[in-house]
Amino acid sequence: MKKKVAMRLLFILGVFSVFGGCGSKAAGTSRTDNGNQAVNEVYSTEEAAGGTEELESGTVELTIWAEQANFDMLNKMIDKFKEEHAGEAEFNITLAESADSGTKGEVLKDVHNAADIFPMADDQLAPLAGAGALAKVPNEEEIREANLEDAVDAASLNGTLYAYPMTADNGYFLYYDKRYFSEKDVETLDSILTVAAANQKKFTMDWTSGWYLYAFFGETGLEFGINDDGVTNYCNWNATEGGIKGTDIASALLAIGSHPGFESRFDEDFLAGVKDGSVIAGVSGVWNAVEVQNAWGGDYGAVKLPTYTCGGQQVQMSSFKGYKMMGVNYYSKHKEWALTLADYLTNEENQIMRLEERNQGPSNKHAAESELVQGVPAIQAVIDQAQYGKLQRVGNSYWDGTYEFGLTMTQGNPRGLELQDIMDNLVSVITQSSVQ
After folding, report:
1. Are 251 and 297 members of one domain?
2. Do 71 and 108 lie in a common domain?
3. Cα separations (Å) of 333 from 59, 140, 270, 328, 370?
């Protein structure tokens, strides 16, 4: 799962144990006191050798992880890459299906057998770089110059670039069917739910995901974030004083959850509902833009998230935001070609292709300024929502806490717990000192 006018937050996650050599394996996830130390040790040999090597000739076999929906587009890019480098080497480039959201786990599970090139969201970069799994970007200044500053920062750790910025759209917003909603209707969640119920349709959002649930907390004045240790979180979502209290949010969610116009659905079920006509509005991201447009045609609409009623007032829904990028496996057998190909797959021309074919918002400066961007509602919605967004920088315990909380809200508090107890438990799990 997922980028734009970004707030700069340099996320330093705990550095993982270092890979000692090509025959060694990752030894765990203990954190060093110095975030630079382990990374510097991993790359010391490379730097002593004078940096990058010359591109090799002969047979070059490379594997790229990607989501199935991007295969056709990537094959076009790969074919053109082969044409441009014809005669330099014999290329055997394979696409293997893998979810972008699972890149970190799959790489760290067995880095030596992971793909040579893989896409990832920006929150995965620090643990991968810290574990020594990412090759440094050799043409760093060129990439910095070509891409949005915040996209480059998101692809960097301690000032060093470890991945090639690819998209600046990894957030979420509101999709809606214009046959049912006016522009005024989609300004408030109250109106959206009323229209959906009146037409026996649904507005959907995944409440089992802390990524989406953050939408109800970010603009309330309550605080949440990751501590300096890069592992644990701080959170006061159970506050009992202030303009909005924790129980106000819980009450608002229970009211929304019980509304006949609402249903909590996974992202893929939202899309299925769009296609079968049962869903006429929902919260999702640009990865579904093509399918939504195919289903709704000229009635496809996308805007920033609405306001919702909380504590007797209208509160703007917020969002997590971020960037996607391509990393190169430090242990790739053909690392220099892998770096060259990753650079090519994320260049201006191919970022424009991503926009045209997959509605993926570019991080390249020139591509981001193109008229094409202005004509894609989903990208414009991401940009408009960005002012209410925050980069996803969270410790693991956040996901456990919000999952349990989301289920309770979706099910209508079936155990009849006191709302303050629910919020206290949520914060207790989010801020726990030890994580799995």
Report:
1. yes
2. yes
3. 11, 22, 41, 11, 37
End-to-end CA separation in angstroms for the chain: 21
Q: How far apart are CA 152 and CA 142, in angstroms?
A: 11
Distance of CA 262 to the CA centre of its chain: 25
Distance, CA of 85 to CA of 281 (rounded, Å): 46
Number of domain units in the chain: 2
Task: Name the E strands within 74-161.
Answer: 90-97, 117-121, 156-157, 160-161
Q: What pTM was computed for the model?
A: 0.74
319: DSSP letter: E
- pLDDT tens digits, 64-100: 999 999 999 999 999 999 999 999 999 999 999 999 9
Please compute, for residue 243, the number of CA atoms within 13 A of its CA located in the half-sphere on the CB side.
9
Does residue 121 share a domain with residue 42? yes
> Which domain range does residue 421 map to?
173-320+396-430
Please list the residues that pair with 167 across neighbouring strands. Answer: 324, 362
Give the angle 151-155-158 at the CA atoms, nearest 5°.
120
Do 394 and 226 meet the contact criterion of CB atoms below 8 Å apart?
yes
Residue 104 maps to a domain: yes
Which DSSP string do the residues of 188-243 spell out, in sequence order? BHHHHHHHHHHTT-EEEE-TT-HHHHGGGTTTSS--EEE-TTSS-EEE-TT-SSSS
| Residue 188: inside a domain | yes
pLDDT tens digits, 225-266: 999 887 899 999 999 999 999 999 999 999 999 999 999 999
Q: Regarding beta strands 202-205 and 262-264, do their DSSP bridges make them parallel or antiparallel, or are they unpaired?
A: parallel
Residue 333, burial from CB neighbour count under 10 angstroms (0-12, 13-18, 19+): middle
Query: Using CB atoms within 10 A of its CB, is residue 108 exposed (0-12), middle (13-18) or buried (19+)?
Result: middle
**Cross-strand bridge partners of residue 134:** 329
pLDDT digits (tens, 9 = 90+) for 370-420: 888 888 899 999 989 989 999 888 888 999 999 999 999 999 999 999 999
